[in-house]
Amino acid sequence: MDWTLFFSALLSSTLLPGGSEALLIYKLSEGGDPILLLIIATSGNVLGSLITYGIGRLGNEAMHRHVIGQWLRMSDDQIIRAEHWFSRYGQLSLLFAWLPIIGDPLCLVAGLLRSPLIWFLLLVTIGKAARYGALVWLSLA
To answer: What is the per-residue pLDDT across 41-51, written as a single tens digit (0 to 9) for each?
Structure first.
């Protein structure tokens, strides 16, 4: 298990800005198993999103917008934008949880709005695996 990649992917989907993509590409260039690295990066990134979802699910909206939003480095504008995406596109917006700026707030909003966990996990995993899969494919091409 490549714990460095796992924790890089996990942290980049919660508190810290990205870095897992560059590390994944580096590990691939060093001859790492593409499928294993894809699974590790996706697992860490999904777990990070699940933590953000859980934070949203456990609290109330007012606290999250001001206290938790600041702790997760999300502006009120980012959270409002994510709420707009979620209300406009519903659960399917979670396919885009990998996007910079909007992805983490989408996960928080999904928790705040009590999105069903199974749909959250399924859609977030599909989107994040597709993103990492594209990076793996492009790196090996």
So the answer is: 999 999 999 99
